[in-house]
Design brief:
Layout lengths: L5 H8 L4 H10 L2 E5 L2 E5 L2 H21 L4 H13 L3 H5 L6 E2 L5 E2 L4 H12 L2 E5 L6 H14 L5 E6 L15 H20 L1 H9 L3 E5 L11 E5 L7 H8 L7 E6 L13 H9 L5 E5 L9 H19 L1
Parallel strand pairs: 5-9, 5-10, 6-7, 6-8, 8-9
Antiparallel strand pairs: 1-2, 3-4
Helix pairs in contact: 1-3, 2-4, 3-4, 6-7, 7-8, 8-9, 10-11
Length: 316
């Protein structure tokens, strides 16, 4: 293979050839570089897949100028399925920029469809395992809408359900008591806005972070509303939340149906809502999978292993 620019070769191979070693190990090939010429040797089919992987990665480098291990592993998965061209054609434009100047973009096809669904629908359900960017991308879309003055406030909420262990009585005022449950939402907002800007907007009432119980009886106009950890809502809570929607508002509901902390997992409001609302216009139900995980590779492996185990137990 002949690569036009030496800079692209450097990015492709990575520090100490770490990127190319991932491709070699996965496909069982040998890849050698001489200047801008790359030579791949091995079994015919494996060489073909490695070449398609490198072609796709080079197209991504031309767009973004960098690569991550997650990019490489995701592209290899697409190559195995024969659908890598969809990644090349994907328009992963920047959603927002963090306070450190890092652009936030969808990294997988599933994430891109999720972003498109949020843009084109009033209510979007984002369902998927840990690490797929459900909450983070939702917060990024909310911050963008707020900065563009499409909405006048952001409302972040989640049910105050403990994950398997009882925390007992927590010290402090109401805000201190609910903060541990809402911490993931705070972390995402700090990334987008910075602590000072976030605090200033909270004091002005432009950003509200509250437990789900405090949504009852309200009408939320001109707002971008995110319900996180929705798998831990009851059907009654979910119906209550969805009927808070006012004019010129958007709502995103995120959750992972494999991590339900309710005493009766069968009564998850998220599971029921997906069944009830699946055919209603202006409501999108997006399902992300382990392929969309953008955390450490082990997270993807853990999710796959658990899924395989539970499927095996269900068959028994």
């Amino acid at each position: 293979m002949q690569i036009e620019q030496i800079e692209h070769v450097l990015v492709l191979f990575g520090n100490a050839d770490q990127n190319i070693k991932i491709i070699e190990e996965h496909f069982g090939v040998n890849i050698v570089c001489r200047g801008t010429e790359v030579k791949i040797t091995g079994e015919s089919e494996a060489v073909s897949k490695a070449q398609r992987t490198i072609d796709t990665l080079l197209a991504m480098i031309q767009k973004d100028g960098n690569l991550s291990e997650q990019n490489i592993r995701y592209v290899m998965t697409l190559v195995e399925q024969g659908s890598e061209q969809s990644m090349v054609q994907m328009n992963n434009s920047c959603i927002a920029v963090t306070v450190k100047g890092k652009p936030i973009k969808p990294k997988t096809l599933g994430q891109k469809k999720y972003i498109d669904a949020i843009e084109n629908n009033t209510i979007t359900f984002g369902i998927g395992p840990a690490g797929t960017g459900k909450t983070y991308l939702a917060v990024a879309m909310a911050v963008r809408a707020f900065r563009d003055e499409q909405v006048s406030r952001i409302i972040l909420t989640r049910p105050a359900v403990e994950a398997g262990e009882k925390l007992g009585f927590l010290p402090g005022d109401l805000q201190d008591k609910v903060d541990p449950y809402l911490r993931p939402l705070y972390d995402a907002m700090f990334d987008m806005m910075g602590p000072e800007n976030f605090q200033r907007n909270m004091e002005k009432g432009c950003i509200e972070v509250a437990p789900l119980a405090y949504m009852r009886g309200r009408t939320l106009d001109d707002s971008f509303i995110i319900l996180d950890e929705a798998q831990n809502t009851t059907p009654e809570q979910m119906k209550m939340f969805l009927t808070r929607l006012g004019f010129n508002s958007k709502a995103i509901v995120t959750g992972d149906v494999t991590q339900i902390d309710l005493p009766n997992a069968g009564r998850s409001g998220l599971i029921e809502a997906v069944k009830v609302l699946k055919n209603i216009d202006d409501i999108a139900i997006m399902k992300l999978t382990e392929k969309d995980v953008v955390r450490h590779k082990l997270v993807q492996d853990i999710i796959t292993a658990y899924e395989r185990y539970h499927n095996k137990e269900a068959r028994r």
